[in-house]
Each structure stands twice: as structure tokens, then as C-alpha cells.
């Protein structure tokens, strides 16, 4: 394959649709690793790898209902199934490699699969990028609600976790402890009462950019962006990004991609296919089958004369 047709099933090298939603891509060694949600069977998070970000080889279901658990120093809920024995929801998984501990560490959004009231984050880790991750449980950072989320590693090696707090009203930003197994600072709250979800962060020419969506469940809405020279402060007012439905997608992440000595910034969004907006029925087979038909929208971010980011529709994504 030399390109991906936006909004169609993206087939892996075995010919199966890639299940890696709300995900994240990192480069490690010669491979890119794509992590994301997989709601099939007992799976939570799957991992694929590629050298060209078009052809992806399935590697492993790295977090499942049966994953091993191991407590850390953080008091956390260790359950990977709910009190009814059903699956929990583990959404928007992001993975970074920790140079100090030599571990791949995942942060994600946790809900119990029964109601939508946990609003917690969860953490897992592994010695290899695509091995079986060990689950370290879910908790509310500093007692706060924490839903849609992302991780961002800065040039000075500090890592930040951004998530939707206060029932999604505000965007919260935390700094991670050096082993990535806890937060070490609650850095602040952004865009009070603006109900932003699906945060995606990147840095270009020393400036931070954040993309996000509004809250409309699985329905797409108008994306927005902001810019700042300080990751935890002085973010500009949000401005429009993409069209009124962000080309029928919701941000998952932005991949900085080196091409001919230049860095490109590639927007990855999810085009969700979901039968019901009620997560209370998310363990219903039919609903899972529907979710499995979710696809992706991948577009190169362009920058105008003021360095504001924008995307234009393109049927195909190629490198
Ligand atoms: C979206 C969110 C998704 C998922 C969904 C559930 O707004 O971005 O990650 O949680 O709601 O309705």
C-alpha cells in the first residue's frame, strides 16, 4: 500500500481492519508504534508497527481484561473488569518510553463500563514497546475528574498529561513524575467552561499547539486550536480548526514526521462509528461490531503566514 483512503477501513498487513482508536504513535528504533483502543473480545489496547506509517503490522493486544496487575506507590483501583464482570472502558491510550526506567508507560482514560462517573486516568507499563503491559490501576489525579486525555514529551524531557476535568468543562494540565508512574504537579486549568475534549499537543519552532474538539459524544464537531510559548500557561483563545465537523473526525493525536530533513505535522483523527451514545450498552455485541467499523482521517497540517495551523480535505493520505 502506498496510501490510506481516509474514512475507509485501514487494513493491517494481515488484511484486518486496524483497531487503534483514540491512539498515539511513537518512534522507537527503526519502527513507528501505533497504540489505540480495540473493543473486540477482551481487548482494551492494541499495538501495530510500521516503518512507513502506511503499512502496519499487528503486534499484540497489549492491554486486555486479563492483563497482569501490579500496584505502585499510588493508591489506585486495580480492577480491569467491573462489578458485573463486564469490560471497563480504557480510552485514548498514549504510550511514551521512559529513558530512566527503560519502560514503555501508558496513560489512558478509565471508566467502569457501567456508568460514566469514574472520570479517572489509568497507567500501565512494559519492558518492550509491544509486549504484554502490566496494569497499575486507575485514580483521580489530585482528586480531579480526568477524561479525554493526551501525553506530551517536551524537548527538556519533561512530560505533561492533559485531560478534560470538571465533567469536561475545563482542560487540566499535569506534569509527570520522572518515572511516569504518577503526576508530580497539577500545573493548571485552561479554557474554563469551554468543554473541550480530545486534546492533541505538538511543538513547532519552540511554540506549543493544542488541538481539541467540543463535547458531542461520538458525533463529530468543530475542531479548535490554540498556541502558547509556555506549555502550562498563556494559551491563546481557541480558534477554528478544520470545518464544522473537523471533516467528520475527532482529534486523536498529531504525529511529527521527518521527511527530507523537514518536520511535518500529521493530524490523526477518529471517524467514530457507534450505534449508541450511551456507554451503558457498550458491552452489547452489536454495538462493539459497530464500533469496529470506526475509521480514521489523516491529514497533513499546514501553516498559514501567521503560523496558524489548518487542514484541508484530501481523499488519500500518503507519505
Ligand atoms: C467522546 C470522547 C470519546 C469517547 C466518547 C464516548 O466525546 O472523545 O473518547 O469517550 O465521547 O461517548
Walk me through the topology.
Layout: E1 3-5, E2 21-28, E3 31-37, E4 43-50, E5 57-64, E6 89-98, E7 103-111, E8 120-126, E9 134-139, E10 149-153, E11 159-165, E12 170-176, E13 183-190, E14 196-204, E15 207-214, E16 223-228, E17 239-241, E18 250-259, E19 262-271, H1 285-292, E20 295-300, E21 302-303, E22 309-310, E23 316-318
Antiparallel strand pairs: 1-23, 2-3, 3-4, 4-5, 6-7, 7-8, 8-9, 10-11, 11-12, 12-13, 14-15, 15-16, 16-17, 18-19, 19-20, 21-22
Bound molecules: beta-D-galactopyranose.
Give a summary of the structure in a few sentences.
This protein is mainly β. The protein has one helix at residues 285-292; strands spanning 3-5, 21-28, 31-37, 43-50, 57-64, 89-98, 103-111, 120-126, 134-139, 149-153, 159-165, 170-176, 183-190, 196-204, 207-214, 223-228, 239-241, 250-259, 262-271, 295-300, 302-303, 309-310, 316-318. Helix content is 3%, strand content 48%.
Distance between the termini: 11 Å
Rg, alpha carbons: 18 Å
Derived structural class: mainly beta
Sheet with most strands: 4 strands, antiparallel
Arithmetic mean of pLDDT: 95
Number of helices: 1
Number of strands: 23
Amino acid at each position: 500500500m502506498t496510501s490510506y483512503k481516509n474514512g475507509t477501513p485501514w487494513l493491517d498487513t494481515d488484511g484486518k481492519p486496524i483497531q487503534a482508536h483514540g491512539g498515539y504513535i511513537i518512534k522507537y528504533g527503526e519502527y513507528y508504534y501505533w497504540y489505540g483502543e480495540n473493543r473486540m473480545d477482551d481487548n482494551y489496547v492494541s499495538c501495530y508497527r510500521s516503518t512507513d506509517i502506511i503499512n502496519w503490522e499487528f503486534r499484540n493486544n497489549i492491554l486486555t481484561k486479563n492483563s497482569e496487575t501490579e500496584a505502585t506507590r499510588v493508591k489506585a483501583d486495580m480492577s480491569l473488569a467491573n462489578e458485573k464482570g463486564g469490560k471497563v472502558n480504557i480510552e485514548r491510550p498514549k504510550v511514551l518510553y521512559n529513558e530512566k526506567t527503560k519502560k514503555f508507560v501508558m496513560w489512558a482514560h478509565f471508566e467502569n463500563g457501567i456508568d460514566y462517573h469514574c472520570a479517572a486516568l489509568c497507567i500501565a507499563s512494559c519492558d518492550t514497546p509491544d509486549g504484554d503491559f502490566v496494569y497499575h490501576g486507575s485514580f483521580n489525579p489530585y482528586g480531579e475528574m480526568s477524561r479525554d486525555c493526551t501525553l506530551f514529551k517536551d524537548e527538556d524531557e519533561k512530560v505533561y498529561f492533559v485531560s478534560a476535568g470538571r465533567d469536561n468543562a475545563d482542560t487540566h494540565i499535569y506534569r509527570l513524575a520522572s518515572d511516569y508512574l504518577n503526576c508530580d504537579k497539577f500545573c493548571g486549568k485552561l479554557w474554563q467552561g469551554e468543554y473541550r475534549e480530545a486534546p492533541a499537543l505538538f511543538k513547532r519552532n519552540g511554540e506549543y499547539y493544542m488541538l481539541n474538539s467540543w463535547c458531542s459524544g461520538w458525533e463529530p464537531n468543530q475542531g479548535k486550536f490554540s498556541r502558547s510559548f509556555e506549555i502550562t500557561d498563556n494559551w491563546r483563545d481557541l480558534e477554528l480548526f478544520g470545518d464544522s465537523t473537523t471533516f467528520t473526525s475527532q482529534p486523536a493525536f498529531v504525529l511529527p514526521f521527518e521527511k527530507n530533513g523537514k518536520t511535518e505535522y500529521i493530524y490523526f483523527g477518529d471517524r467514530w462509528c457507534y450505534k449508541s451514545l450511551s456507554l451503558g450498552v457498550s458491552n452489547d455485541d452489536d454495538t462493539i461490531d459497530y464500533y469496529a467499523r470506526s475509521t480514521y482521517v489523516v491529514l497533513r497540517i499546514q501553516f498559514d503566514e501567521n503560523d496558524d495551523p489548518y487542514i484541508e480535505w484530501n481523499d488519500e493520505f500518503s507519505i
